Amino acid sequence: MAYKSINTSSAVEKQIKDDDSYVDYFYDAPGALPGTLDLEPDAAPPEIVLIDYCETAATRSQLTNPQEAAAYLDTASVSWVDMLGLGNKETWRQMGEVFNLHLMTQEDVVNVPQRPKVVDYEEHILIIAWMVMIKPNSDKFHKEQVSFILGKHYLLTVQEEPDYDCFAPVRDRIRKGQGIIRKHGADYLAYTLLDSIIDGFFPVLELYGERIEELEDEVVVRPTRKTLEKIYKIRRELLTLRRAIWPQRDAINVLIRDSNDLISPEVRIYLRDCYDHTVQVMDMVETYRELSSGLMDVYLSSVGNKMNEIMKLLTVISSIFIPLTFVAGIYGMNFNTEKSPFNMPELNWYFGYPLCVTLMGTIASGLVYFFWRRGWFENFSTVKDDSEK
Amino acid sequence: MAYKSINTSSAVEKQIKDDDSYVDYFYDAPGALPGTLDLEPDAAPPEIVLIDYCETAATRSQLTNPQEAAAYLDTASVSWVDMLGLGNKETWRQMGEVFNLHLMTQEDVVNVPQRPKVVDYEEHILIIAWMVMIKPNSDKFHKEQVSFILGKHYLLTVQEEPDYDCFAPVRDRIRKGQGIIRKHGADYLAYTLLDSIIDGFFPVLELYGERIEELEDEVVVRPTRKTLEKIYKIRRELLTLRRAIWPQRDAINVLIRDSNDLISPEVRIYLRDCYDHTVQVMDMVETYRELSSGLMDVYLSSVGNKMNEIMKLLTVISSIFIPLTFVAGIYGMNFNTEKSPFNMPELNWYFGYPLCVTLMGTIASGLVYFFWRRGWFENFSTVKDDSEK
Amino acid sequence: MAYKSINTSSAVEKQIKDDDSYVDYFYDAPGALPGTLDLEPDAAPPEIVLIDYCETAATRSQLTNPQEAAAYLDTASVSWVDMLGLGNKETWRQMGEVFNLHLMTQEDVVNVPQRPKVVDYEEHILIIAWMVMIKPNSDKFHKEQVSFILGKHYLLTVQEEPDYDCFAPVRDRIRKGQGIIRKHGADYLAYTLLDSIIDGFFPVLELYGERIEELEDEVVVRPTRKTLEKIYKIRRELLTLRRAIWPQRDAINVLIRDSNDLISPEVRIYLRDCYDHTVQVMDMVETYRELSSGLMDVYLSSVGNKMNEIMKLLTVISSIFIPLTFVAGIYGMNFNTEKSPFNMPELNWYFGYPLCVTLMGTIASGLVYFFWRRGWFENFSTVKDDSEK
Amino acid sequence: MAYKSINTSSAVEKQIKDDDSYVDYFYDAPGALPGTLDLEPDAAPPEIVLIDYCETAATRSQLTNPQEAAAYLDTASVSWVDMLGLGNKETWRQMGEVFNLHLMTQEDVVNVPQRPKVVDYEEHILIIAWMVMIKPNSDKFHKEQVSFILGKHYLLTVQEEPDYDCFAPVRDRIRKGQGIIRKHGADYLAYTLLDSIIDGFFPVLELYGERIEELEDEVVVRPTRKTLEKIYKIRRELLTLRRAIWPQRDAINVLIRDSNDLISPEVRIYLRDCYDHTVQVMDMVETYRELSSGLMDVYLSSVGNKMNEIMKLLTVISSIFIPLTFVAGIYGMNFNTEKSPFNMPELNWYFGYPLCVTLMGTIASGLVYFFWRRGWFENFSTVKDDSEK
Amino acid sequence: MAYKSINTSSAVEKQIKDDDSYVDYFYDAPGALPGTLDLEPDAAPPEIVLIDYCETAATRSQLTNPQEAAAYLDTASVSWVDMLGLGNKETWRQMGEVFNLHLMTQEDVVNVPQRPKVVDYEEHILIIAWMVMIKPNSDKFHKEQVSFILGKHYLLTVQEEPDYDCFAPVRDRIRKGQGIIRKHGADYLAYTLLDSIIDGFFPVLELYGERIEELEDEVVVRPTRKTLEKIYKIRRELLTLRRAIWPQRDAINVLIRDSNDLISPEVRIYLRDCYDHTVQVMDMVETYRELSSGLMDVYLSSVGNKMNEIMKLLTVISSIFIPLTFVAGIYGMNFNTEKSPFNMPELNWYFGYPLCVTLMGTIASGLVYFFWRRGWFENFSTVKDDSEK
Question: Phi and psi of C79, rounded to 5°?
């Protein structure tokens, strides 16, 4: 028995359902039999598509079980066995036989997600990669594991989810014989698919670039609680992207330097290009991480600024009216003016009230002038300009 | 004489009793005899369980003292000597003889906790590892040191605490002959146990993942002082996990690269898988650390936001009622209206009071409109929405 | 088909149009044919300038198509083919033939921007560099990619934008035979141009140095919302500069260490100097980044300081007038003095009012003295001094 | 002439006197003669203790001058020359002769503090280490430099301060012949002393662990200005410890790897253990540094929280009483009720006053209910619970 | 033509004039001729001092032009040519000839400041170093570039500014034949001067240590706006020191490892000591940087603390007097007591006023007790204690 970490907490699961941004790795129950595959025994068998091509022709067929693939593997033509979904235990018993897979390899492929890596088994090479893409008609991103088994004349790819992939243009090219793809071997095919996966990070990053752009305005002009949540969410998701791309770079680097001759020197040149793209993705992820952490600082400052403006308003109003109210309070005292000429004689003056009002007006004007000199009112208009912008 | 750091301060001890999260290393009193074992001479002898198995059979026996193990060590069958608890000095005198242990090794095994590491003594290999697990029926995590002495045909494991371990499934597998465990040697057994230990980190991490998830909501919607304490506590405990997993990775790496032929090439392949899991644990620890440090920023901002809302309320109420009170104060002045027509004639007007009330109403409406235009009231309702969510 | 990341969002595009500070890398549509050039088939052909020189003479000619360059490439004289603008697909079909360019090279040169790098193709070396410069009559900076193809006797440079470059002094020197440039080969020419590009970073950095200098005053004396935006903007733009200069350093380092004999030992000495300049640029970028992040801290503190001063003003005024108003309120109560000698007899005292005013004066003076002792008024004058400075 | 950095400023000196936590390195006056020893010519000669031992016997003698040691150095027995205090120039003239010390070595030993390091002079090895310990009956820590000169059959140790050291247990062991110390050479003695020094860091660190523990409570429940000072002080002192332990690790590593055969392979095994302890010390220092920097964040948040509570109190009281005072102000206006039926007829109503009081009560209850609904009062009681805890 | 970055902005220049703390590197105008020296053609020739010494004698002479030095360079005696000031173009034409300097070397020496580095030209070694010193009678620090050309029997030093250097003690030692300087070659002389330069960093650092010490008090007890500026200034200046010392360490390391036999093995031992000092300087710079960044945190907290105290005062005064004023307001209402027995009968009670005053006293005492219980007054006295300290 094995657990998938995402199953334990419904809260976590909801999160993942939501946006696929919270990635934990698969792990065995402590003490579980190494090599246990986390599959339902009665799950439906996966769809398996075989594309077999050489320079002059390409055929596509749907396989009903892995054993049908056996005949193609050692022929000179390139056989791309594309498995959509993880299948069931029976599938893997057969896969193990046909492709001669170590138990450890099967575990890495089936118990998803694993950290991207490359393992060289001499006879074939295992490549674990993560594919991200923006879901059609949505601004959420989808993440799944794609595993490659690269042999001499074949490439096996296993996709976690059958619904999404970014390989359609490659299939097209094989079918139509576009470019040089049909002139090269399985290693070139593996490169092409890896390259598609890396290129798939860019549109996702672009989305984050735009979101950060929007937040840059929002955070200065109208920072709200929602802004804060958005910044935090972007930081968390970039953390996931980062965790996906760093080991991918290492994996591609291993491929380039690996001494196994399953990969030809020419394809290594192409892989170097793919490596450069991976570095560019990392560059952008790091840049966005820095930007979003800068946004948090700006947010904090904006909150402080806003408080200053609230306090200024309170202070202006209080400072003007509290003294005036005191003056009015004075003249509301009930000292008996008849008992003594010292007891508030001003109440009986002919110009008592006008003088009092004048006094109040003078105090108010003085305070207003005081605040105006210090530039407190300018600020208020600035605020207005900003919000009307 | 030797001290255990956790004994000095009762506060520290309480902390450890609580949640095992505050780990200091064992240290000798400065100048103490190297090789001094920190054991009570009169402590009870530990429970020692011997599991001896080959491909066809497995026996389990309880040993009363270490010397009984001597007979099994050089036989071709694999002997797993599992010592539960650290025992007393007499135990270790015998252990030293039976297993031919260097004084330094004994110290590392007995004076817990030591930093995870691997030391190769040619004839056997010492592996120090840290095991964490969630205590049953609790959300606290338990941490203890497990030491391995891997010889040609035997494996000695010493567990700090007899009560907890995660080796039950392995014992089961040996008894039932499941998997390939009985076909391999002591090195495979050591790998299996190490793998169980690493896999034991995942459920603990998952717990932290969930706590962080909960805090993410709490920190934005209802940040209280308790939230702050929780964030700090998570950061502190992740620091402990990090201190446990980093050296463990180095240790496993040493095992993989070590030239000692006590570890067969095939088991090295398995260890590589174990290494990958360790890296995954590290990845998650680092991710959670970043998330929790992001939470602290969010908390700070939330505190500021909350203050802004408190201040807005104060400002709205003060700004509306202070001017009105001033107006009321004016008409409460006692100027003698009989002495002069200038002295508050409005008090004697026919519509004096209605006009005054109208004036007040106008002022109040004007201010309410002013605040409404600036969006201060929207915010209040936002707050309400949030808290009702 | 290929996308340029800057095309997707009009917001992003506007940003770039504005100040060229938001650099994303070019990327292929996932799954696109490797080697697809992102060019309009019907774009105008680029202007191509050929400068051919040896120690004794230099000629300059305008080419109408790349094939005209073919005759010059293998002659002993140095041929600098300078392509201004990226041209169209037809141009590149011819370029590929004439200069024998790998499809991957063409992609790197045309699909801008790429990360700066050096790729050695034996027969020629590809150098990708980023050029920044301050636009004339403006304080914005312009950024474009310049690609070099360095062969035995020729240098091909491809500039993204025809309008700006910093090579005019080099052209002058070739024409006039100044310095040693006409005595050396194409490798020295490549060095000279690279050096111009690196030196072009300094004036841009100087601009940032000045801006930070100005902000240092502003942030302490008159921090406004605009200040915050400026600091954030500088941080973002320095991030871009940093992303430009780090890989450039690596690229130059590769050039120095590369074993290809297209670069002579003497030119390697010059490149080492160029490398030193690159490190100086990096030093300054990092310094400015630290300074600007320090400015953010200062800004936050200044906001807090300002609030303290606002609060002090409010507190002083409230603390003085609220108690006084209370006293006035006392004597405004309407207890019937005739019913009892205990009911506010002071209203009928001969010196009632003067005593009351004295009381108020005493309270006010006491509070003023209290605040003065605590140094609250000093602060106000400090503020004044600052703002008059 | 040479300066000791601690002499220049009396403030610094006071600091050091206080808690030994502010460590600057020794430095020569710029341009001073290299090899100048910073000693008073007329200082008292140091106490020099010679412990000479072999497997069967150990003698201890007090030397009056270094030359008496000369006779012991080349004998087969191990001679430990322990110099307490730095002595005067005459001492060092003799030391230089007897132990054949390079001028640079003398400078490193005498001009304290130097950065911990190991220098191999073939004939002997110089080891500079820092010893920290808690002063008896105090919670301050003491720091001094201990220098080792390890020769074939002798070990010279020079202690900066005669009053403190942690070598007493080692002396005891030599005298009593405990353990294996008398069976080994001078290299084992050097290891034993180094190990004592490293173990001496643990009790100091433990003290910091406890202080941080205490601050964790204080910072949440009762954060005051003193708390802030304590956190800063801990951070500063941990910085010093860190500066002491990092180079010590490097130094021990050099010892282990050094090819000089003054150190036997067996002692290298012991040194590896000592190295592990050093790494444990570093681990703890880094952990405490992270914790204390987390405390600073918590402190900042607590200050904000406290302000929120103060503001809430002010807001609750102001919001309730300001409107009520306004109502009272209304009915304190002096409109002439006789002039018109519109002029405050309520003053003459039979139930005027009761109605007014009811109105006030309603307003007050409404506001109290409003604040209660928003949970403002819960918070107050929380505060109380906390402070009574 | 070449620009010096400090010339462009008068603000920057003023800064530099002020305290020499704002260091930008020299850069050529983009595209300028490599090897252009930034010198006025009509500047005065520099003062050139030649000190020629061997073990038995030392002579000092003033040279009128570089060519006079030529005769000394190849003699067995050590010739130290010390050039004070950068001179003019004519000087350098001659220097180039006499010392056989590469154009690149001349540029590095003349176009100051350059990053510290070491370049080995076989026949001589170029060393660029930065010298800092505290200006006499001032607390500002002076920074200039000193360049060394180390040949077989000569050392050329070029100082940017003739007015300051720290070489006087070395000159003295040569003249008097103190120490071993006259027994060694030019390499030892170079070491001695480099060592003087490194030792010159310590007094500057000590100054910063003291300033930080002072700020530690200031920031907790009396944080003002000036404190903030001081902290920021220290951070900025430490950044400069750091930029000076890091490459210097690398340069010295290169010298130690360089295979050129211009540096004898014995001098390499001395250089190792010099390297250790450089590391100590770096240690202190990093420590001070951490401390000053900790100070910024403390400052922020102090600002928050101060606000809390201001708010407490406001809250105490408001909370006490606002309710009392309300009570007074009640009894100031003009309800007609004659119309109804319910209309404020208390105004006519015999003990009405005393009861009212008692009520007010009770409310006030209750509130004072409430605040006292929460410890608000303790805090005020704490503040007082602090400021009287």
Answer: -115, 115
Q: How many helices (H) and strands (E) does chain A have?
A: 11, 9
CB hemisphere CA count around E350 (13 angstroms): 0
- Identify all chain D residues contacting E179, using CB atoms and an 8 Å cutoff: 33-35
Q: Which two tokens stand for residue D278?
A: 């050093």
Sign of CA dihedral A289, A291, A295, A296: positive
Beta bridge partners of B384: none
User: Looking at the DSSP assignment, which residues form a beta bridge with residue E128?
Assistant: E117, E147
- CA angle D276/D277/D279 to nearest 5° reads 65
Provide the CA C53 distance to its chain's centre, in angstroms: 37
- According to DSSP, residue E246 is labeled H
SS3 B141: strand
Q: pLDDT by residue for chain B (389 residues), tens digit each?
A: 333 333 333 333 333 334 444 457 877 777 677 777 888 777 888 899 999 999 888 999 999 888 889 988 888 899 999 999 888 888 898 999 999 998 888 988 998 889 999 998 889 999 999 999 888 777 777 889 999 999 999 999 999 988 888 898 899 889 988 888 899 999 999 999 999 999 889 989 988 988 998 998 888 878 888 888 899 999 988 998 998 899 999 999 999 988 888 999 989 988 998 999 999 999 999 999 999 989 988 998 888 888 888 888 888 888 889 989 888 888 888 888 788 888 878 888 888 888 888 898 999 999 899 888 887 876 554 444 343 33
- The gap between the terminal CA atoms of chain E, to the nearest Å, is 60
Alpha helices by DSSP H, D20-141: 70-73, 89-99, 103-110
| Entry pTM | 0.83
Q: Can you state the percent helix, strand and coil of chain B, rounding each to 5?
A: 60, 15, 30
Q: Which of residues 45-84 of E touch D (CB under 8 A)?
A: none
Could you tell me the two tokens for D55? 């497997």
Block residue for tokens 């000839």 = E97
Residue keyed to tokens 């004659």: E338
Residue of E nearest to C367 (CA): E317
Q: Which residues of D touch E302 (CB under 8 A)?
A: 225, 228
Q: Which two tokens stand for residue D210?
A: 């406890």
Is the bond leading into E46 cis (omega within 30 degrees of zero)? Answer: no
Can you give the three-state secondary structure of A133-193, one letter per residue?
EECCCCCCEEEEEEEEEECCCEEEEEECCCCCCCCHHHHHHHHHCCCCHHHCCHHHHHHHH
Q: What are phi and psi of E172, to 5 degrees?
A: -60, -45
| Selection from D229, D204, D206 nearest residue D219 by Cα | D229
> Terminal CA-to-CA distance of chain C, rounded, Å?
60
Say how far apart CA B369 and CA B372 lie, in whole Å.
Answer: 5
Question: Cβ(D295)–Cβ(D216) under 8 Å?
Answer: yes
> What chain E residue is nearest to D15 in terms of C-alpha separation?
E213
Give first-to-last CA distance, chain A, whole Å. Answer: 60
Looking at residue E355, the DSSP 8-state letter turns out to be H
CB burial readout B104-117, b (16+ within 10 A) else e = bbbbbbbbbbbbbb
Would strands D117-120 and B141-150 be described as parallel, antiparallel, or unpaired? Answer: unpaired
Counted across chains C and E, CB pairs separated by less than 8 A come out at 198
Buried b (16+ CB within 10 A) or exposed e, C274-297: bbbbbbbbbbbbebbbbbbebbbb
Chain E's closest residue to D6, CA to CA, is E206
* CA dist A305 → A309, A380, B212, D230 (Å): 6, 12, 30, 30
Residue D314 C-alpha from the chain's centroid: 41
Closest CA to E65 of E33, E90, E40: E90
ipTM of predicted assembly, 2 dp = 0.78
Phi, psi of B78 (to 5 degrees): -80, 130
User: Which residues, 6 or more positions from D54, have their beta carbon under 8 angstroms from its beta carbon?
Assistant: D76, D77, D78, D182
